[in-house]
């Protein structure tokens, strides 16, 4: 055995052709890392095309994982170790490598054809391009075939096992136990003993090759992180949304009704939810986004909790119905999994630029509560809380997630559903006279009267309501009053939800105010700067509408306010408008998550100015 | 919840208690009044419990309809009533759900939703008020207006080819398709009752006079003087016979319907018999084409009624089947699914 070095944290990225099984390899590495009790965060990066031509730059599929013996909050800015299955995978990721990074390349794929497809004039393995890195050349195709020599499989099928050969090598590098993956292989290929044998042999082959040939000088150890005790599983944002939804359904006793129209990256939510019909969950793939929200709203009128899930272009279509939901004051939950760009944009890239359409996308004054998830695991809580608020306040609630959160994974401490807050339903009593727009004093919510209940027959719709009776009214004073009442009701949500806590000192040079998926990057950056003695604090918004009460108070106590966003400045407008503060934005819109190093520089610059 | 219970009959419904306290705001003389009156009669006759009846509408003059009945009602947005009604029916299949829509609402902006409502065959009744004009927006041509229609938005005549709502519904595989008129109250009530009785999506097109923007377009079908020559009532297993003296019929010549003078018994024999249960969509579709044929009368009545499982029934059955198959969901178990690990 060679040297063993202990590291605090590492970011590695598996990259290859769409057909190379990189997502699968990454997921296996993630699972094993979780079992080793490191903290971790992942970032799958798919190509936009379903089957891009092999070997091309736009066909590269990547899976990044950051793991550590400390608590971490992002999948990492830069790559310490790159596993490049072909020249295109190398090319696409070169600019993300740290100095002296380790690159494991599949030498066999560096053919003149592949080099050309990747746009390399010469072979970068030979021309000094990679002199700043430690390059480990492995004949992955040849070695895999050789390891599987005695197995009865076609050449092509054997070749497909090379991802496990590579994974075996990486497992050696980080002293990982092979068992979880061996177990996975057994279950996955239960019907095909020969595939079990082939993949097992490839995995072990890779590990043994690394062990016996000494191609790595050192192997690494990352100590267990100090993680809260509990039972854990890995969780992506979209899965967490679904579990939050199902749990809220069970806790409230209401039927969950999810109607949706497929759109990346929201589709998975419809797919996962549809698997859970044994919970009485009702799901429907509608003919379009408009119908999806209409079906959900109809279901809510009839006593289910209607929900819909979509991404930007779909949200644009749904907005007229959202106005009706605001007017009729029915519970409804809309998940918007944001993606990059106006129109179709970049469907497989991330962005957080739907805040404005969420806030203002409807005609007239039509406010609704908006909550944003801060990471994959948080999606569970956000879905649960959104449903709770929707029924408690009789209002549509908009949940913002994004592609980065939706596909990213983190270890999740599985909660005990018995300990989650109750979800109270505000039903009208059939023995009382029913006035559809009579309101609860504290929350201003009206009561829910379900069709099928005698004595509560009533009519609602999009026309302006007379206060209390809900009759159609064109009265000027009444309209003014109703507009204000609807707005006030949404403000009162703030009295019933938890305020964020300020991270850091109560006053100082810079307060960073953020929302959504930038949470991890901002937290990491602020902690780093604070450790260096900078007077920086951090306030992360969960409910963006209404804004938390303490935000104004905190803003006054800092010399400067920085609002980092993966858009051109949407939250900052809201903050400037409301608090009349000269906040500064930090904005990048590249289809990629916020980077820690850039944010660090921006904060330092602001302190110096 | 999932099982559709047999509908209770409420004998306490009267014209008074089915009428809401809202003032009806349609123009005096509008055909909508008659349709509302016939709907009330239908609800009373059928004894549909008020609390189990839901009217869902889009936007247009006709779509104000739900406000005037003391049942549950939802006046939604333009064209989208079928979507809302779908949610209502699926959330509670025990409800009797009625969609009220206009020709503009249902066939222009809402054409896509109507298509999907029909092909899904939910047990919902769709009543489309066809006045061949946009009433609420004050008189623009609609998707059922004829080519050349001069309106405020088509001062030189509209160029759009019209939709025949019956053909449209048949083309979308609707399982119950019928036509009635505001000025034929008895027949209209009959059609509403049959629509209700049908377990699946029912579509009734109702010719409605807009006396403000499109007055008289159906008068040749409704005037006692001309009606019998221009209208033929469809009766299952009966030949198509019309005319004041009942001496004209419709016969089939190859793929064409033709007029037949009925003088002798033999002439009667030549007529084919209407078959509303005919599963071949081609037949009903041809019949719907009579509407555009100036030589032949306009059919009223049931064009087609097919029995098929309704979507709502299958939707809930599937949930029950999955429950049986997988066992009722257990949330604690679900949260613990997949590969877990414990940290002490
Ligand atoms: C999204 C939207 N677009 C347009 C309108 C305006 N609008 C209201 S009713 C209507 C047409 C209604 O015509 P029809 O369905 O034939 O009903 P009628 O009034 O004749 O009963 C239009 C265009 C609207 N309310 N909403
Ligand atoms: S405009 Fe026409 S359809 Fe509308 S209420 Fe008046 S008469 Fe009836």
Question: What is shown here, in short?
Answer:
The complex is a heterodimer of chains A (609) and B (344). Chain A has 609 residues and is α/β, with parallel strands linked by helices. Helix content of chain A is 37%, strand content 22%.
Overview of this protein structure:
The complex is a heterodimer of chains A (609) and B (344). In chain A, helix 6 packs across helix 8, helix 7 (179-188) packs antiparallel against helix 8 (193-213) and helix 11 (289-301) runs parallel beside helix 12. Chain A contains 20 helices and 22 strands. Helix content of chain A is 37%, strand content 22%. Chain A has 609 residues and is of the alpha/beta class. In chain A, the strands form 5 sheets. In chain A, strands 11-10-12-13-15-14-20 form a 7-stranded mixed beta sheet, with helices on both faces. Chain A has a 6-stranded mixed beta sheet with strand order 3-4-2-5-6-7, with helices on both faces. In chain A, strands 19-18-21-22 form a 4-stranded parallel beta sheet, sandwiched between helices. The model of chain A has no long low-confidence stretch (mean pLDDT 96). Chain B is an alpha/beta fold and 344 residues long. In chain B, 33% of the residues lie in helices and 20% in strands. Chain B is built from 13 helices and 14 strands. Chain B has helices at residues 15-18, 32-46, 81-91, 103-109, 111-120, 165-171, 185-197, 219-222, 224-230, 265-270, 281-288, 311-326, 331-335; strands at 53-57, 72-75, 96-102, 124-130, 133-134, 140-141, 176-181, 202-207, 231-234, 241-242, 248-253, 256-261, 298-305, 340-343. In chain B, the strands form 3 sheets. Chain B has an 8-stranded mixed beta sheet with strand order 2-1-3-4-8-7-13-9, with helices on both faces. A 3-stranded antiparallel beta sheet of chain B has the order 10-11-12. Chain B has a two-stranded antiparallel ribbon with strand order 5-6. In chain B, strand 5 and strand 6 (140-141) form a beta hairpin. In chain B, helix 2 (32-46) packs across helix 7 (185-197) and helix 4 (103-109) packs across helix 5. The radius of gyration of chain B is 23 Å and the shape is globular. The mean pLDDT of chain B is 96. At the A-B interface, helix 1, strand 9, helix 9, helix 11 and helix 12 of A face strand 2, helix 3, helix 5, helix 12 and helix 13 of B. The structure holds thiamine diphosphate and iron/sulfur cluster (SF4).
